[in-house]
Each structure stands twice: as C-alpha cells, then as structure tokens.
Design goal:
Length: 109
C-alpha cells in the first residue's frame, strides 16, 4: 500500500473481496430503465402548459368576435386574417395538446 493511502474499512474490504471473487465490480453496466421525465422534458411540459393557456385564451377572443355579427361589418377587412389566425391556433393547439398528453403519459409511468 502506498504511503498516505487510506485503508478500506472491514465492511468495504469484505465487499471488495466478494466482488473480486465473483468477477464483478461495484458498477453495473446494465441499461437503466428510467421512468418519468428528464429535466428538459419537465421544462418543456411547463412551457407547453403556458402556451396552451395563451392559445386557448386567444382562440376564445376570436370565437367571441366571430359570434358577433356586428363585428364583421365593422372590421370586414380583418375577418380573413382573423379566420386564418383561428385556423392556425386550432392546428397549433392540436399539436401542443398531443405533445402534452405524451409527456403526461410518460411522467405517469
């Protein structure tokens, strides 16, 4: 033993001797099946939830606008743009909700 090297405790020595006798080491190289979300996925989930809330709020605003016949007369030029925006919001919401469901399912295990 080299000078200054610590002597393993009796329990540690026994474990090392058994490992050496079995031909195994303390570290396992078997793949770990981790359940739950990674840090990145947790952050993504939080962001998706906020994004969905904003998209749903904007969708409600546009639906209220389209439900009011007098609004169409006041802003006839904007109706096409708002209709396109509503379509895009609905598409984005569908995609984000699908991803949210996938992350929630993974988190649940």
């Amino acid at each position: 033993m080299a000078k200054g090297e610590k002597v393993p405790s009796a329990d540690r020595r026994d474990g090392l001797e058994k490992s050496a006798a079995n031909g195994s080491s303390q570290k396992s190289t078997a793949p770990v099946d981790r359940k739950g979300l990674s840090f990145k996925e947790k952050k993504e989930l939080e962001g998706i939830e906020r994004e969905i809330e904003k998209l749903e709020a904007r969708k409600r605003e546009l639906e209220i606008f389209f439900a009011d016949p007098s609004a169409h007369a006041k802003s006839a030029a904007g109706v096409t743009d708002w209709s396109n925006e509503l379509s895009q919001i609905e598409k984005t919401l569908e995609e984000r909700i699908a991803r949210w469901e996938a992350l929630e399912s993974k988190r649940a295990g």
